[in-house]
Amino acid sequence: MSGTGSGRTGGDPISGSGSGYGGGSGYGGGATNAGGTGRTGGSAMEGRAQDDGRVYQSSGDQHISEHHHYGDAPAAPAGPDSVRRPAVGRPPVVLRDRTDVLERLHRTVAAGRGGEIYVLHGMGGCGKTAVAHAFFQTATTECGRVGLWVNAADRASLRSGMLAVAADRGAGDGELLAARNGYRPAADLVWQYLDSSSEPWLLVLDNADDPAILGDGSWLRTSPRGTVLVTTRRAAPRWWPGAELQHMGVLPREDAARVLHDLAPHTGTLAQAAEIADRLGRLPLALTLAGGFLSHQVLDPWTMDEYGRHLEEDHHVHLIDRGADVLSDPGPRHLVGRTWQLTLDAFAEHGLPEAVDLLRLIARLAPEPLPLSFLNDDGISAVLPRARAESALRGLLDHSLTELVDAGDDGSLRCVRSHGVLLDSVRAATPASQTALLDTTAGRLLDAALPDVPDAGPYDPRLRLLAPHVLALLRRTTDAATVAQVVGIATRLASAMHRTGDYPSAWETAGRATDLATRILGDEHRAVLAARSRTGRALFRLGRYPEAEETLRRTLAVQRLRSGPDDPDSLDTAHGLQLVLENTGRHEESLALLYATAAGRKAALGPWHPLTLRSRSSLLASLGAAELAAEDERTQLLSLPQQCAEHLGAGHTVSLGARHNHAWASYQLGRFETADAEIREVTETYLQRFGPDYPIALAARQLQARTRAALGRTEEAVALMTDVVTRRARSLGQEHHFTAVSRDLLDALRSGRWEPPRPQH
């Protein structure tokens, strides 16, 4: 315990410190601590003090005031060891890319300009500090600037660093002490000396991730004597009025590969480094840590290929952070597993925990553009209140934990995108108790983003955007019920892609989903079989007939064994298989399977179900002239378009398909005028609804070319087929079966070898 006392004895001031005040004896009031004694009333007083105790004795009236401070005396605020050298962990060997940013900054200091503020903003680990360090070196060594570097991560560091700047620019000890003790405004003192500096300067405020700190006391100002450069994760312009903002993203692929190769040149080639860089999302911090790890392995050195194989594990953040072992100070900002946790902790402190919940939800998905509509759904309420989703997303955007991107060709499809290493880090730190809820919520939101019954339509970029997220969620989920739910979503997504003509994406999505779900559910689970069936349907459309047939036959056999031949899933696979058989010349087998499918769907789903009518419509396109006449006598098949319009509506896709196939049947029967009029109307509808490149529209135009030629309009037919061949070759490839058939028809029309079918009487 220590203390200070003051008192008056008969008007004379007494002050001091020690074990006692006044003479050796006295009368009157006294103060005795636990280690002292005292007597009053005319006899001598004795006092003893122990340790830091005091005894006060006086011969007259004395009034004593004491102020006690327990514990060690507070030390004077510690300042940085230097503001003339950047406080960075490990600058890059060579700063790759970023040349445009550095050149622009260099021009400002080379011209002797001042009064400017530049803000480098971006996600943690993107190299903002590295760019600031490179600019600092250029400004001090080539441009004659005094370089001043301040850590602005927190109030204490900012205040002590800025006061150190004032001392560097000539502030006296008394002024600094007054500012430290609050007797004069500290920021005013600093900027007074910056404004009066005899030398031009560059002031770097590094890690200013909480702009409110700079606003308190107006620490961020401009001066004609220098330039201010700020590095921050906060992207919102409102924090930086009057400043020029520069976004810092990840590196281009070639530069990212060179960063890794610079650090570990003997562990692999530039091509191998590029592969690793892609897996690390080309994030400078991750590249630096990976290079540090590879270059410092002694007992068991790894090649880049070996490092890449280990990165294939879902949680590879810890492997990346092992590269920080070579750092003298591997603080949180130098670790990918911790650098973003600083921001997440700040969300909780500032009353926005929902931002953390939202990021954990996004982390269950892929580091690809995610449509904003995914987040704007009531299903998100299971993880965070929907009313708070807007503020949570704005928090993530403001702290550079995600970004807004336009994924559509016309800029109308707004999405959010987060870096893969960030998502890995967040996912690894997510409590295990929350993963089940996060997975089911993500699945529910993906489900809500898809149409309940996918329909034919033009290409929809949103579908392809959802695919990597569905597959990422499927890869991370281990609960069987959730896996079954998500693989069902993947199958429906593949079906939707298929019906927009995006067959490659449909095949890739369904095939990958099948493989992922099989790990948990086995290869005979109903949901897995449905996904495999959809894979076979896509293979058919891609012209890969042998693979399609093998996939569909194998799937159908298991479905019939487990669920029966008239189960809707079995019938769906059978419908796909008969298409393959028809296009590979096995007409009789295909027709028998189609008849069985139509009958099975009628029994299982009813006569007017869209799928039942779709199979009956396929009979119109599969039967020859004689078969059509016979079938029409039994089932009135030729009146199917009217039946579809009555039960589904004239504009339904199945109704349009029935009219299309009816036009083909009329053509087969030699009713060319009827067929030409009907297919012309169908083609116009297809072009309006789907566009000229849609597969069904091309098939309709091909039939229109046939009817035109049958009516003697050969030039029109050739023009139509020329366009069809060009478009099919562009979308399907020159060697696709459909392209080849169209090309053969065009050649026959041009050469005069083509003949229409003979009319049936």
Question: Would you kindly provide a written description of the structure presented here, covering whatever features stand out?
Answer:
This protein has a five-stranded parallel β-sheet. A three-stranded antiparallel β-sheet has the order 2-1-3, with no helix packed on it. The chain has a three-stranded antiparallel β-sheet with strand order 9-11-10. It has 761 residues and is an alpha/beta fold. It has five domains: 1-74, no CATH class; 99-247, P-loop containing nucleotide triphosphate hydrolases (Rossmann fold, 3-Layer(aba) Sandwich), CATH 3.40.50; 253-331; 450-605, Alpha Horseshoe (Serine Threonine Protein Phosphatase 5, Tetratricopeptide repeat), CATH 1.25.40.10; 622-751, Serine Threonine Protein Phosphatase 5, Tetratricopeptide repeat. It is built from 31 helices and eleven strands. The radius of gyration is 39 Å and the shape is elongated. The longest helix has 19 residues, at 480-498. Helix 3 (155-168) packs parallel to helix 5. Residues 72-92 have a biased composition (Low complexity). Pfam families: TPR_10, TPR_12. This is ATP/GTP-binding protein.
Termini separation comes to 120 Å
Radius of gyration: 39 Å
Low-confidence stretches are 1-45, 61-77
Structural class: alpha/beta
Quantity of strands, as a count: 11
Overall average residue pLDDT: 83
CATH topology of the largest domain: Serine Threonine Protein Phosphatase 5, Tetratricopeptide repeat
- Count of helical regions: 31
At the fourth level of CATH, the homologous superfamily of the largest domain is Tetratricopeptide repeat domain
Widest sheet, order of strands: 5-6-7-4-8
